[in-house]
Design a protein that fits this description.
By secondary structure, this protein is mainly alpha-helical. The chain has a domain of 113 residues. The chain contains six helices and no strands. α2 packs antiparallel against α3, α2 runs parallel beside α4 and α4 packs antiparallel against α5. The protein is flat.
Amino acid sequence: MGLPGASIDWKTRRANMQNVCLNCHEKQWVDNFYVQYDSLVELYHDKFAKPGLELYALAKPLLVPVEFANKIDFVWYEIWHHEGRRARHGASMMGPDYTHWHGTYEVAKHFYSEYVPELRELAHANASSGDAAKAEAAKKLQAKLDEVLSSTNHSWYINKLDPAEKERRAKAAEEFRKRYGK
């Protein structure tokens, strides 16, 4: 589009922003902010964006070929762009409530309550299709979905949480109840 800053790389942009931050904050504070911010972005990408995009690509052969003619097109767009953007933007603006409730919570809610069920339905509906290509695509989609849900990030959803992690979470919940319970 011919914008004057189009050729400036991300590293230079980040350094410029850090210099702005340093006008009011000490270096350690700025560095710590970027550790938190980068960690949130990395978590979103690793847990939802990358596997979600892979699943969406595998679902494409099973969809009506017109963009946004399928429910899953809207669900993925919401997860990827709308809610994921709010999580990242909330973190960049140091708004933890916005980052969580309008970002990561919405991403997770729609990933597990809409996206995964839609993917399962697509795979199931096409698995025994008379169309060999669709049946094969459904098989690949289901295999990838099983792989994603069995990963450390999602295994709780299929009730396959590592027993040590399950115990750790139960202990933390009990400590929380003791500390904050009536």
